[in-house]
Amino acid sequence: MKQPRRRYAQRARAQSTEATGRRIKAAFLARLMTQWFDEITLERVAHDAAVTVQTVVRRFGGKEGLLASAVRSLAKQIEARRAAPPGDLDQLVDNLISDYERTGDAVIRLLALEPRHPALKKVLDLGRNHHRQWAARAFAEPLRRPEPPARQRALDELVVITDVYTWKLLRRDMGRSVGVTTATMKNLILATITQLSKTKTK
């Protein structure tokens, strides 16, 4: 009877460790949404997660390791929030803007710090790649029509139109409302897609 008990205890410990890891990442991400990366300390994260700093270091190896792991979790959340039926432009843009309203300011802060913190480049490159892949999937049908050079240019345009910097320009720099920002982004996307329909097909 000892073997099943041992397996149960091992499984319980593994589940507890995983739950602690999720709690630490959630505490870090909560601060990342409102603070600059270089202002966040492991002491504050540990306090928020109700663990010791030693637990954070043992689990993630330090602040950079915590950043990398937390951003991977955030990427999954972002992907889920942006999900929309292919070709449903209204839902695609609505979901994208909704995500930027939650995470956009934090991403802009990370981008501003990128030249000062080499560890941020790897994390932000991951985000750039994910965004480009999202755009390629979201607009797969119109992008399928033209020859490769035109397709590449169109994808570049769609990535730029839907980029977090475009959201920032409209929402933060120009002070446009969510509704106006959404409509502007949709109009720009439609213009690109319309132009694509006029290009030579494969």
* Class by alpha and beta content: mainly alpha
Q: In whole angstroms, how far apart are the ends? A: 67 Å
- The number of distinct structural domains comes to 2
Reported for the largest beta sheet, the result is: none
Helix proportion of residues, in percent? over 70%
What percentage of amino acids are in beta strands?
under 5%
Give the helices and strands as they follow along the chain: HHHHHHHHHH
Number of strands: 0
Contiguous uncertain segments of 5+ residues: none
Number of helices: 10
User: What's the rounded overall pLDDT mean?
Assistant: 91
Characterise this structure.
The protein is an all-alpha fold and about 200 residues long. The chain is built from 10 helices and no strands. It has helices spanning about 1-30, 40-50, 55-60, 65-80, 90-115, 120-140, 140-145, 150-160, 165-175, 180-195. The mean pLDDT is about 90.
Explain the layout of strands and helices.
Elements: H1 2-32, H2 42-49, H3 53-60, H4 63-82, H5 89-113, H6 118-138, H7 140-143, H8 148-161, H9 164-173, H10 178-197
